[in-house]
């Protein structure tokens, strides 16, 4: 399964060099990850109330920036799960403008539940089969 | 040379799980990179007017997130150049709370000048010795 | 003339109370203001190169927040010029979900040009008739 | 009682005109409001667990922007309660650089508790005397 998110690059996303301030790419990656989760029926409400998770936080994030984006650009972000491990999964985000690749991101996410020791800590659990199954369904 | 940046985690930096929304780490990495540049005498004004750069944009950014941060936490970010290539250099950002490592980031940056073909494009140049020298000076 | 901007409320726009962190509304107002300017043919490039402006910065901004918005909400922002003075104009932003008003914003903007004393300062000029005319055109 | 917050204006806070993108002022106002609340002993945890609130959300926010701020500027934000009504209170935020006023903000906030109808809605309650008393204490 893959999701597509269209993003309009806004004036406020850009810096004094008139190109996108790069942390915004990660903001868009997170938004695009949620498009995929929701498409798979995994809303935040379902993740919290059916799976007992606090969410699917990030263990590792990275991006390669190929060409700069500017105010007025319209981009399409394609997001899909590239691989699974027992407790982590890799989400790939491909950012294209007019079909050309402008950035490519990778998020390593976990399924996290709260520690029950009152510390406020969280821990990664084995990824539930149901979540793996839903995110791997054919489009 | 290394720089230190103290950051207070704000309410608005956190998400519905009450932990920091991860793109903010990259916002802090960029701020911490500028602390290092300015400490080395490389203000944006000097980079633009003495070196003819549009800036030092990011070719690649990544971070490992070790423990979650919350509103009210105070963190210290230590930033330094870890390695040089001909056209890129690696900046490491270590995020600590109470001396303990909470995240570790890496930015690969370039020295960029505008293309002169009116396209609005930018290109990475050989890193000027002066910039390398300044960022490598002893503290 | 009025413009419409559709915004999807993202996970990262919300705070530990799971409602939108309010500075994001102003980010959306700015994006919606640019939709109106561009619809009127006033791109940033045209404002800078044909009108000699550095932009249309904000002298005053305000918003009333009527009902909270949450992750997953889809909103529509309607933006139009409500009044003109010699050096300022008032932009109104109406935020609706399912037709119901959730917030109402007002931005007072100026047409700014750079001071020529090298101070980096800016000053508001008389609003050019052409700008007023374009933003007042019938849809 | 009043609080002071020092903020360093970062590269990423500024726009293509090299001045602060204005929604960031509201981000700083919120941070400064929390400095005041915490100084008065009203942490988020205490507001939630002792007072049963979801927080102190914004009913109305506004700001006048007097002079532009740039990357590298250091500002001081002074925050205090200017007036009380039964269900709202007004927070004033004065932004100064080198003692000079650059912006002045006003937030109208409420003490909000969750509706118990499962709608996810919130409602403003009468401001508890204890909250009023704490925020009105002498410095």
State Rg of chain A. Answer: 16 Å
What is the helix/strand order of chain A? Answer: EHHEEEEEEH
- Secondary structure class of chain A reads alpha+beta
Across the major sheet of chain A, the strand order is 1-3-4-5-2
Oligomeric state of the chains in view: homotetramer
- Could you give the count of β-strands of chain A? 7
Low-pLDDT sequence parts of chain A? none
Biggest sheet record of chain A: 5 strands, antiparallel
**3D shape of chain A:** globular
Mean pLDDT of chain A: 96
Largest interface: C-D, 29 and 30 residues
Instruction: Supply the number of helical segments of chain A.
Output: 3
Question: Helical residue percent of chain A?
Answer: 10-25%
Bin the strand percentage of chain A. 35-45%
Distance between the termini of chain A: 5 Å
Topology overview:
Four copies of one chain form a homotetramer.
Chain A: E1 2-8, H1 23-39, H2 44-49, E2 58-65, E3 74-84, E4 88-97, E5 100-110, E6 112-114, E7 122-124, H3 129-135
For the structure shown, list the relevant keywords.
homotetramer; 139 residues; 5-stranded antiparallel sheet; two-stranded antiparallel ribbon; 3 helices; 7 strands; globular
What would you say this structure looks like, in words?
Four copies of one chain form a homotetramer. A five-stranded antiparallel beta sheet of chain A has the order 1-3-4-5-2, covered by helices on one side. Chain A is globular and about 45 Å long. The first copy, chain A, is of the alpha+beta class and 139 residues long. The first copy, chain A, starts with a strand and ends with a helix. Chains in contact: A-B, A-C, A-D, B-C, B-D, C-D. Chains C and D meet through helix 1 and strand 2 of C and helix 1 and strand 2 of D.
């Amino acid at each position: 399964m893959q999701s597509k998110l269209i993003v309009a690059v806004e004036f406020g996303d850009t810096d004094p060099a008139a190109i996108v301030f790069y942390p915004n790419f990660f903001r868009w990656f997170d938004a695009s990850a949620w498009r995929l989760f929701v498409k798979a029926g995994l809303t935040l409400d379902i993740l919290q109330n059916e799976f007992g998770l606090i969410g699917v936080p990030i263990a590792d994030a990275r991006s390669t920036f190929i060409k700069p984006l500017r105010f007025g650009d319209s981009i399409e972000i394609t997001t899909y799960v590239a691989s699974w491990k027992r407790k982590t999964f890799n989400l790939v985000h491909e950012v294209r403008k007019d079909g050309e690749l402008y950035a490519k991101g990778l998020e390593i996410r976990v399924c996290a539940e709260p520690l029950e020791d009152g510390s406020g800590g969280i821990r990664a659990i084995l990824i539930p089969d149901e979540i793996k199954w839903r995110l791997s369904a054919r489009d």
